[in-house]
Specification:
Blueprint: H1 4-12, H2 16-20, H3 24-53, H4 55-62, H5 92-95, E1 102-106, E2 109-112, E3 117-120, H6 123-126, H7 135-147, H8 160-172, E4 179-183, H9 186-203, E5 211-215, H10 224-228, E6 246-249, H11 254-264, E7 269-274, E8 277-278, E9 284-285, H12 290-300, E10 304-308, H13 322-325, E11 332-335, E12 347-351, H14 353-360, H15 377-392, H16 395-412, E13 419-423, E14 430-434, H17 436-441, H18 445-456, E15 458-459, E16 462-463, E17 467-470, H19 478-493
Parallel strand pairs: 3-15, 5-6, 5-7, 7-10, 10-11
Antiparallel strand pairs: 1-2, 2-3, 4-12, 8-9, 11-12, 13-14, 14-17, 16-17
Helix pairs in contact: 1-3, 3-4, 7-15, 8-15, 9-14, 18-19
The structure holds pyridoxal-5'-phosphate.
Pyridoxal-5'-phosphate binds at residues 125, 185-187, 190, 219-221, 275, 279-280, 308, 310-311, 336, 347.
């Protein structure tokens, strides 16, 4: 939370011209922001409001009744109170004061602070497999937090829920003899896997194997290694030199993979990071046969196949992991998101015996790596309750059914003038691809389209430069999926390609 002088400075930075240009709506929003903040930070906001709008706004802010519950629930305008929040992946100049404030969720639906309801076609950020508002997960969290809220797992420390969770995840993975290393999210998991891979080869007498291969359109999170492995254009820009010994290959060509390995010499390769279905890069399933073939190429090179299953894991692709479905037997699997359906943050790395064994050997070295919240018991309790739902409701099988429903449903949208096609076919994740001519005419089309469908009552997201994400909770009903398609169409109908959308 900034101190008073910072808050004031931020508002002072606006030019007088901008201040004069404010609309009545912005002015109202600003007063509204002032009211919300008054409840907690009266001095700061009164100063800031006064600075920008003068005596009139100051008088308005002073009229707030702090004991009136309505003041705390003022609908979308209340979003203006959140300009202290620096959003991830956001142009804050446009977002500050215009936030979309999500207030509550139930099943596949979320509600804004005005009570408007939206179908969550992205399962938030691909993670809410079981839908929102599951009492069983909430209860498990409360029960565990009362018993042991949190404790670390460094050194020899453990706790019952995390031990149970590790065993269960290993059992679900392609190799039940695997070991599971816990983290706080996907980016942590990618960095952990990258370090594990390089450290493994140091330990096993091949320290020159440091090169990590990534693919065009890949998203492996935004930590140091993840940024270095970025395949989405722009995601690695602006940070100076990143990790050396990273090479990038096309996402869909095993020939290109072979060529890259031959060029460098296979003895230099530590591993290939591979999303079984590229997610954030626009939903790009690998071509038929690619995954098995790439896995074999990496094996033949003596390197590690690292499946990044942060999106594809935990039933999204019709099995516990896409690696099970496609018999990939990765050396390392990164996971996050669906392990808890997002109720609390968690990630991890599943290390097959090949990688884990040297670290587990008697007299083996310490892996000097880990996070404060690795193995958090309350998060583990949430994960266990979530796995019970995934298993009990057969959501892997359901995802497989929904895979066909999705392909068919997205196909029906292709008669819309703004839709050029779709990417789907592996699991319950897809992308509505916008028509190339419309995109050419209006490069802002993906962002405009996602705003328009939201106005229609559907939360989607621009991904891959040309598409809208469709990856709802696996708990969605057939009727809700039909609603999703209808809302998408209604939203797209509202988009004006060359106007203001
Ligand atoms: C494949 C993949 N890896 C890693 C990450 C990073 O996960 P997080 O945002 O939890 O750090 C993501 C996030 O979307 C992802 O899709």
């Amino acid at each position: 939370m900034p101190g008073p002088s910072q808050a004031t400075d931020r508002h002072r930075a606006e030019s007088p011209g901008r201040r004069r240009g404010r609309s009545a709506a912005e002015y109202g929003a600003y007063c509204n922001a002032g009211q919300v903040r008054c409840a907690t930070e009266r001095v700061i906001v009164v100063d800031a409001v006064h600075d920008v709008f003068g005596e009139r706004a100051l008088d308005a802010a002073k009229t707030v009744r702090l004991d009136d519950p309505k003041d705390a629930n003022m609908g979308p305008l209340a979003s203006s109170s959140m300009s202290s929040l620096w959003h991830p992946f956001a142009s804050m100049g446009a977002v500050a004061g215009n936030e979309f404030v999500v207030d509550r969720g139930e099943g596949v639906w979320v509600y804004d602070t005005d009570g408007n309801r939206y179908l969550d076609a992205t399962a938030s950020l691909w993670y809410c497999q079981v839908g929102h508002g599951r009492a069983a997960i909430v209860d498990a969290i409360a029960t565990q937090a009362r018993r042991l809220d949190a404790y670390h797992t460094f050194g020899d420390f453990s706790n019952p829920p995390i031990a149970e969770l590790a065993a269960r995840i290993a059992r679900y993975s392609p190799n039940p003899a695997s070991a599971v290393f816990f983290t706080s999210g996907g980016s942590d998991s990618v960095d952990t896997a990258a370090k594990m891979a390089r450290r493994y080869f140091q330990l096993t007498g091949e320290p020159e194997r440091t090169v990590l291969i990534t693919r065009d359109w890949a998203y492996h999170g935004m930590h140091g290694f993840g940024t270095s492995l970025a395949g989405i254009p722009g995601n690695a820009d602006g940070y100076g030199d990143l990790f050396p010994d990273v090479i990038k290959v096309p996402f869909d060509s095993t020939d290109a993979l072979v060529t890259a390995i031959e060029k460098l010499g296979s003895a230099r390769i530590a591993g290939l990071f591979c999303e079984p279905v590229i997610g954030a890069g626009g939903v790009r399933p690998a071509p038929d046969g690619y995954l098995k073939h790439a896995r074999k190429i990496i094996e033949d090179a003596g390197a590690l196949f690292i499946a990044d299953e942060v999106i594809t894991g935990f039933c999204r692709t019709g099995d516990w992991f896409a690696s099970n479905r496609f018999s990939l037997e990765p050396d390392l699997i990164t996971f996050a998101k669906g392990v808890t359906s997002g109720y609390l943050p968690m990630g991890g790395v599943i290390a097959a015996p090949r990688v884990a064994d040297p670290f587990f050997a008697s007299g083996g070295p310490m892996f000097r790596h880990g996070y404060t919240y690795s193995g958090h018991p309350t998060v583990a309790a949430a994960a266990l309750a979530n796995l019970d739902i995934l298993e009990g409701e057969g959501l892997a099988q359901r995802a497989l059914q929904l895979e066909a429903v999705l392909v068919e449903g997205l196909e029906t949208l292709t008669d819309h003038p703004l839709v050029g096609g779709h990417r789907s076919g592996v699991g319950f994740l897809g992308a509505v691809v916008l028509a190339p001519d419309a995109l050419g005419a209006d490069p802002d089309l993906p962002a405009k389209a996602s705003q328009a469908v939201r106005r229609a009552g559907l939360i989607s997201r621009a991904i891959g430069g040309d598409a809208l994400q469709v990856s709802p909770p696996l708990s969605i009903t057939d009727a809700e999926f039909d609603q999703l398609l209808a809302l998408m169409r209604t939203g797209l109908d509202q988009v004006r390609v060359t106007g203001n959308g």
